[in-house]
Write a structure and sequence with these properties.
Length: 276
């Protein structure tokens, strides 16, 4: 039982909660997730099962797609409606929501929420918040590939973005650009990489009988795949010669990923991690 499990994460549940439930239902401890999703958000959560847990250090930053709604007039500690209210302000109506959203397409500078697990000086931001301590939150550049209005009246939009983007912070910035306070009122992660919500399994109905796993190579598609013989050299961790310019390659056998190898020099590669 090895591969990628796509789950539709329910609301009011942490990503780690989902992992624990999946472990019980599938009767294995070898399950981990590829990146957290906020407890109040729903949607695509990728779990690595069995041998797939070994590929976590080799995953590339994966783009994501979200469906979100913005609420105006309120500033909260967490930048969403579930956080402590810090300030309210009368709403200035947004005349052209699609045009406002378009201003945020491209590479933008973003300040992450203080209720997040980003570390500053070795301490997570939410720990500063819980202790009532002030901290300077460093800004970061994030990529917004597409942003589209879905319902102007409801302030609902779709955003396709790079890894590390906080949609909560995006909602705050969109509101500020319209001279409003604002926060996020709902969030659905509709896509992670090539995995869409339509492929996701409901956690309630997950079982060994209903399980659908995708091949490990689906998350290693950014690497060059090399079918190598004799494969016993790879199983024994030997250095091998490959004619390639890639710094990292994935060795395959019978269509399955067997190991990650790293370039030492010229055409010589050394074993970095076995996947068996």
């Amino acid at each position: 039982m090895d591969g990628i499990l796509v789950i539709n994460k329910p609301t009011n549940m942490t990503s780690h909660d989902v992992v624990n439930i999946a472990r019980r239902k599938l009767k294995t401890k070898k399950i981990g997730h590829t990146g957290t999703l906020d407890p109040n958000a729903t949607g695509v959560l990728l779990l690595l099962v069995g041998k797939a847990t070994k590929i976590l250090p080799f995953l590339e930053d994966t783009d994501k797609e979200y469906i979100a709604t913005l609420q105006l007039g309120t500033k909260t500690l967490s930048d969403d409606i579930w956080g402590e209210v810090l300030e309210t302000k009368p709403i200035t109506p947004i005349e052209d929501f699609p045009a406002l959203l378009a201003k945020f397409q491209g590479t933008i500078t973003q300040t992450p929420p203080i209720i997040s697990s980003i570390k500053v000086n070795g301490k997570k931001l939410y720990e500063y918040a819980m202790a009532g301590e002030s901290v300077e939150i460093p800004t970061r550049q994030v990529d917004i590939y597409e942003i589209e209005c879905l319902d102007a009246a409801a302030l609902k939009f779709r955003v396709h973005c790079g890894s590390g983007t906080y949609v909560r912070s995006l909602c705050v910035d969109i509101a500020a650009a319209s001279s409003n306070l604002g926060c996020m009122s709902s969030l659905v992660r509709s896509k992670v990489g090539r995995f869409e919500l339509s492929q996701a399994q409901d956690l309630d109905s997950l079982s060994l009988d209903t399980l659908t796993l995708y091949p490990i190579k689906e998350l290693l598609s950014h690497m060059e795949m090399v079918a190598y013989e004799p494969i016993d050299d790879v199983y024994h961790g030997k250095k091998i010669k490959i004619d390639s310019d890639a710094k990292q390659i994935c060795i395959t056998h019978d269509g399955e990923c067997i190991a990650i190898y790293k370039k030492i020099n010229d055409d010589l590669y050394g074993s970095e991690r076995g996947l068996w």
